[in-house]
UniProtKB/TrEMBL annotation:
TM segment ranges: 192-213
Record-linked InterPro entries: YcnI-copper_dom, YcnI-like_sf
Biased composition (Acidic residues): 178-187
Residue ranges, annotated region (Disordered): 137-189
Extent of the signal sequence: 1-28
Keywords: Membrane, Signal, Transmembrane, Transmembrane helix
Organism the protein comes from: Nocardia sputorum
Limits of the YncI copper-binding domain: 29-162
Protein name as catalogued: YncI copper-binding domain-containing protein
Biased composition (Basic and acidic residues): 165-175
């Protein structure tokens, strides 16, 4: 009985260790998070970049973008950002580079890189293939697609799921930014109409009081 119990405990410990190891490995991937991202809309995408090496730090990150019209990076102390465009002025990539003398991302640490971008493509998900450069010259490419069976590759590309965009009266999808602008215009128009109506109402009251006063005097 003691032998069986020992084997069961050993199996449980081994399984737990493998699970924790797998979880640690997955957590070390370059990932992206973009809450509220919609098809055709704008979003703030935050790339989480951990340093997996025990001896070298991360000194650069290049993220490929799906030919977007707009991309604005958030300033990060000790880092500079360069936006790359094609001949159509579309943004194709962003490279963050650690400043000379800056530590970059030391071993055992991670850094977040945020960028406001859009309009996002009209598809269910979008991938952002990335390249992570280390201080020892090693480059790790995070560009492998996730298999249809759900198995995660060794170096998966950062990706986000896009919710359906808003639609106009004709059933065409519009960006969230355009929808917000339309809403603001509608609110402003409503306020103007409300103000005009109030002014006309006050004018009517004033004219009515004037007629009453004149009637009493006569």
């Amino acid at each position: 009985m003691h032998s069986s119990l020992s084997r069961a405990v050993g199996t449980t410990v081994t399984t737990t260790a493998l699970v924790l190891l797998a979880g640690g490995t997955a957590a070390a991937h370059v990932t992206v998070d973009a809450p509220g991202a919609t098809q055709g809309g704008y979003a703030v995408a935050t790339f989480r970049v951990p340093t997996e090496s025990d001896t070298a730090g991360t000194t650069a990150l290049t993220v490929t973008l799906p030919n977007l019209k707009s991309a604005r990076t958030e300033p990060i102390p000790g880092w500079s950002a360069k936006v790359e465009r094609n001949d159509k002025k579309e943004i194709t990539a962003i490279t963050w580079t650690a400043d000379p003398g800056a530590p970059g991302i030391p071993p055992g640490q991670f850094q977040r890189f945020a960028v406001s971008l859009g309009p996002l493509p009209a598809q269910d998900s979008v991938s952002f293939p990335a390249k992570q450069t280390y201080s020892d010259g090693k480059v790790v490419s995070w560009d492998q697609p996730v298999e249809k069976d759900g198995d995660e590759p060794e170096h998966p590309a950062p990706s986000v799921t896009l919710a359906p965009g808003k639609e106009d009266g004709d059933g065409h999808k519009v960006s969230s930014e355009a929808a917000d602008e339309d809403s603001e215009h509608e609110d402003e128009t409503a306020r103007w109409l409300g103000g005009i109506g109030l002014a006309l109402g006050l004018l009517g009251v004033a004219l009515g009081l004037g007629n009453v006063v004149r009637g009493r005097r006569s």
